[in-house]
Amino acid sequence: MQDRPKEKVLPPKADFSAWYHELIRRTLVDQRVPMTGFLVYKPLGYELFLNCMHILEDELAKTGHKKCYFPTLIPEHLLKREEHHIAGFSNEVFWVTHGGESKLEEKAALRPTSETIMYEMLKLWIRSWRDLPLKIHQSCSVFRYETKHTRPLIRDREILWNEAHTNHATAKEAAAQIDVGIKIYSELFRRLAIPVIWIDVVAGVFAGAEAAVEPYTIFPEGRVLEMGSVNNLGQRFSRVFDVKFKTEDGRDEYVYQTCYGVSERPLAAIVAVHGDDKGLVLPPEIAPTQAVIVPIPYEANKKKILNGARALKEKLKGFRIELDDREQITPGEKFYEWEMAGVPVRIEIGPKDLEKGGATLVRRDTGKKEFVKTDKIAARLEQMFVEIFKNMTDCAKRYHDSKIKAVKSIEDVKKAVTSDMLAQLAWCGELECAAKIEKAVDTPFIGKDHYQTTKGKCVGCGKPAKFLGYVGKMY
Ligand SMILES: [Zn+2]
To answer: Is residue 392 part of a domain?
Structure first.
């Protein structure tokens, strides 16, 4: 048998950027397409993304959001109507100018997000207080001509995402909806075993929003990745788009709105947070293949082993199981491939396993091996998935906590940031003070902790602190 041409060895995770790019190209996405900044999702990558989206869509459905779909093209006049909004996206919009050979009367944007086109329609749908709250969401792709360097699954020009938009009769209800949005995303990240810090953005909120809170996770390079955004729009858009309703006592009032979105970035987080030198490590709930059966046949009992493997696959129908019975590839090469693909459990069946009436289960997260009798494998797998998820959650949390450094001086902020940590500091709440800290350490002041506060003295000015601020490198 001729050897297949060998792919180069995966760089170690310590060489993060090289490891990340090589690993995702071999498993999830391929960016070698003729359009710079665009991606091809390979089967594993796309299925993994959809599995994450299904969790999200289920949570949205449970909390009363209805699914819908709006057009990809947004006429220029709509996009330009809200001044902060268009200012925020001015450098990022792809424009469609022609239909066939003829120039369009009005150019149209490939949606960078859907507020403008949605709210133009909501104006027609919302009439009275009885129509509220109205909560919709859509899974689609949005387009942003990023001028910064693109990076697959982190900064792409076509972004797969889900965006939710809610409409309320009062500011209080809209504020309460922000907590619902945070809870929905927190549940998603919990099930991906990705630890996050929720940060109130203090400058540069979503274009047109009054306030934004965003979930961040920390990558090995010490940079933080923003994985979504939950925005309180107040009445800014509803005033511009004339989304009004009749109150119970007959007055005309503008609706209060929120919007929140999460993109494919959680995939990047799954890779970066859980992956190791051998490749991806996927949480069992979202892994497209939860376990792979690899027969290890020897000439004399080849048939028997293959039959045993097939019978086992049949028994494990309730899981997402692959049987790798390719004859042209050695078991060792199969192990290598499936480990790189992050499959949570490998089930080996060799002559000894067959003799003892079972198989050897190998965990991807720890590498631990365990012999299990055939009739116990289904139950053991179920249990093992819970153990794997727990271990992945604990490891990720430990790592995350180890990357946060509580600091007491500007000097220490600098030290933390240069040693690839996220600096956590007491902050007075003044924007000028945040700007001063940011300038002194030449690193972004990201925002303040959404949940935790602190007393002590502000690291920037020495005045009494109210908030816990974060300074760190960002993607
Ligand atoms: Zn201060």
So the answer is: no
